[in-house]
Inverse folding.
């Protein structure tokens, strides 16, 4: 075992204890069993997999091999038999098991091991093997270098801050001959355990240096498949994000286009309102302004028949200026006083007689009135005067 592995072993042991103490292992075991029960037997054999333990035990002068959980042995052979015969018997007993899943455990009699129950502080759980080695001289008549040992934590009630553990030790003189006999038969075991009833105690007395290293191609394949599944999941999420981004960009472009169209519509509506306002202003101005025809008609009706105009002008401010001749120019003020078209008639300058016509020459100014909604036609004045 490498130095790095030894330094990480306390953390791994702590993680294993936390995992075993949680309800997750029981839940997954129950769940897996329920799922496996729904599969056909052929499928269960095909997808079963996992480590399958076989127990190898010496009984008198023979070796017996049985599957964990079974009472009847699957293979037997006498000690000292030829290696080929032992290998053939072992292969025939485990032919239905995948070689990658096969695990062999050397099972020792209960009387061959020394077991002691310990009450330890909770802090000792992180270095249980070292604590067991320290307690070896106090709990057993052996020294550490004389035994193979293992310590396991017990699931038993204990005082607060403490826990129960069990120390299992086997003298090296007892185990080494058995291991040497199996190695001579080219049989390598994965664990050394102690018999407990029809099963095993659940410890491994095999020294770490003698535990066979196994490569599990199936585990590597499973890890590769898991990595591929994670990669595919990440790619799927990235594709989903890309699709969402493309959809968002498309929607943003559509929104920008609709905003531009809305701005154009608003500009057209404003232009239409401006044009309508301008047209309405012109219409109102035209309606409120007296036309030239109305002005001429009103002046024609109000001025006497013996008066005439020589010049008529209207400036943009609505001021009317007209020049002409009349027998009595001063009477024109009264004639235009009640006009609905012009207001404030006044003479501009002085009234001068014209020697040629004998009439008075005048120049008048007035202001146009705003046209009303229902302007009555101007009444005729004393336009019935006598002609000159």
């Amino acid at each position: 075992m490498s130095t790095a592995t030894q330094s990480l072993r306390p953390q791994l042991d702590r993680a294993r204890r936390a995992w075993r103490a949680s309800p997750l292992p029981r839940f997954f075991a129950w769940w897996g069993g329920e799922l496996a029960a729904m599969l056909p037997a052929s499928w269960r054999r095909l997808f079963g997999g996992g480590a399958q333990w076989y127990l190898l035990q010496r009984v008198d002068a023979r070796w017996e091999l049985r599957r964990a959980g079974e009472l009847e042995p699957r293979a037997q052979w006498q000690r000292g038999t030829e290696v080929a015969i032992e290998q053939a018997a072992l292969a025939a007993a485990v032919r239905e098991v995948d070689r990658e899943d096969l695990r062999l455990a050397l099972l020792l009699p209960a009387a061959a091991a020394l077991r002691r129950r310990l009450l330890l502080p909770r802090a000792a759980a992180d270095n249980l093997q070292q604590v067991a080695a320290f307690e070896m001289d106090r709990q057993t008549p052996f020294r550490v270098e004389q035994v193979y040992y293992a310590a396991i934590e017990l699931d038993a009630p204990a005082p607060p801050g403490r826990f129960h553990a069990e120390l299992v030790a086997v003298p090296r003189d007892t185990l080494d001959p058995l291991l040497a006999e199996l190695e001579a038969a080219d049989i390598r075991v994965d664990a050394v355990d102690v018999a407990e009833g029809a099963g095993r105690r659940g410890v491994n007395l095999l020294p770490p240096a003698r535990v066979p290293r196994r490569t599990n191609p199936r585990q590597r394949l499973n890890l590769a498949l898991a990595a591929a599944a994670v990669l595919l999941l990440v790619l799927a999420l990235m594709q989903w994000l890309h699709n969402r981004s493309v959809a968002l960009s498309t929607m943003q472009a559509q929104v920008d286009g609709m905003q531009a169209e809305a701005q154009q519509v608003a500009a057209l509506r404003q232009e239409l309102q401006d044009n309508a306002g301008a047209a309405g202003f012109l219409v109102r101005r035209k309606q409120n302004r007296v036309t030239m025809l109305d002005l001429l008609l009103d002046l024609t009706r109000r001025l006497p028949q013996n008066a005439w105009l020589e010049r008529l002008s209207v400036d943009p401010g609505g001021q009317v200026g007209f020049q002409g001749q009349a027998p009595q120019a001063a009477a024109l003020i009264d004639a235009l006083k009640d006009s609905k078209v012009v207001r404030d008639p006044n003479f501009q300058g002085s009234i001068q007689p014209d020697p040629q016509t004998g009439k008075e020459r005048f120049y008048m100014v007035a202001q146009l009135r705003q046209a009303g909604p229902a302007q009555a036609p101007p009444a005729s004045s004393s336009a019935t005067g006598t002609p000159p």
Notes: The CA atoms of residues 36 and 44 lie 7 Å apart. Confidence is low (pLDDT under 50) at residues 373-388. The chain has nine helices and 14 strands.
